Amino acid sequence: MDDKYLSLLEKLDRKMDRLNDRLDGIEQDLVFLKDQAITRQEALSMIETLEGISEAVAQQAATKAEDKADATYEMLSSLIEGSNQRLLDRMDQQTKQVLNSLKPLDKILSLLVEKDERQDFALSTLEQRLRFLERRLGNEK
Predict the structure, then answer these.
(1) What is the pLDDT of residues 20-61, one digit of tens each?
(2) How far is CA 94 from CA 53, 61, 103, 106, 141, in A?
(3) In b/e form, how buried is each residue of 35-52, taking b as 16+ CB within 10 angstroms?
């Protein structure tokens, strides 16, 4: 029985050695995982840092968007003002051209009015002369 007992003990020893080897491997894996793991507090700290970075990036993006919007507004305002000024300049130029083109017409109109007044005067004079002659003829009969 001693041999049997001895044989069982040897088997048990070998199994224990394999079990110990496996436990050593598991211990090494646990040490590695523990070294790689972060604590809850470290995770919370990382989350806070990431939230701060996200807020800063969002604020920068908002500021850039506002700046871009302001610059676009200024540019469009400048373009509109320039366009309005060019339009006013063109209107002034066209008004001057119209007024210049009306000057000869105004002169012609003045001459026509003057001719009409002279014709009215001549007609009035002829009418007076005609009445005078009619009265004279009436007196001679």
Answers:
(1) 889 888 899 888 888 787 777 888 889 999 999 999 999 999
(2) 61, 49, 14, 18, 69
(3) eeeeeeeeeeeeeeeeee
